[in-house]
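writing this on my phone so excuse typos. first protein, seq and then structure
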Amino acid sequence: MFYVGDGALVPNVAGSGFTAWFRYSYMDQNQNWEGSHSGPASDNSDKQLQTSFFTFGGDYMINRHWTAMAELPIYDRAVTSIDDGTVFGAAGSI
């Protein structure tokens, strides 16, 4: 919770004061990097990392002065390894 200044910065678009949202992001890591430059494939046994990020959130405007907000970030990752070409999957929350 935080104070934003008398409700001027938080719009109340719903009569109930509740707002919900969903955000999706995707990351495809298919190149090897070391620091800020490209690295050799021999340094990394992973061929490709694909990750989807899902974020569910909502806030409730209690009154003009107080708002409660929560987010639930979840990810789904697929890893292709150079060892045997097997695709491994992982899911969880961050």
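second protein below, same order as before
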Amino acid sequence: MLVTLEGLDGSGKTTVQEALRDRHPDAVFTREPTRSWYGEAVRRSIAADDADPIAELFLYTADHAAHLASTIRPALAADALVLCDRYTDSRYAYQGASLDGVVKRPMEYVRGVHQPWTRPPDATLYLDVDPRVGVERASATNKFERAGFLAQVGENYEQLIEYEPERFVRIDAERSPEDVIGAAEDALERLLDGEDCSVR
């Protein structure tokens, strides 16, 4: 099973993933951007305010393709539980916002680039946080952590949830870290037991 962790910057995904690592030590834990040279190119682009958004999209796409080949598909073929901090939904939501005004229907454009070859998640834990809270927590260290931009990203996430409500589990990430971790642990256990805990 491939379970992804999604949400705005400052929603607490990394903290949740670390807690899940303690609960599921045999699972494969990974993230995007990766720690490969592809991922390093992505991080350099994130740090550059003048990076071209189309070029940036395809840096992310290359990193994702390599990640699928080197980590995701082999782990799933071995019947491992895979938990990924950010995955395709981040690309759709964030690059969809970055490409606003550059291409028509930007989020659909990004989804169209990926859908012929990516491996969709089986379930997604969406850590829901107000953009203003996310900015405050993230301390706005890069161009993607600004309130106006994050508000647009949040709208894109809501559209993705509307497209596939059966895949997403919404978790209120404005609660205490302990409560958020507990909700994520509970949701993952129910998913592994085959229960439906999706957004409806």
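Helices lie at 13-23, 37-47, 53-77, 88-98, 106-114, 131-138, 147-163, 177-192. thats all i got for now
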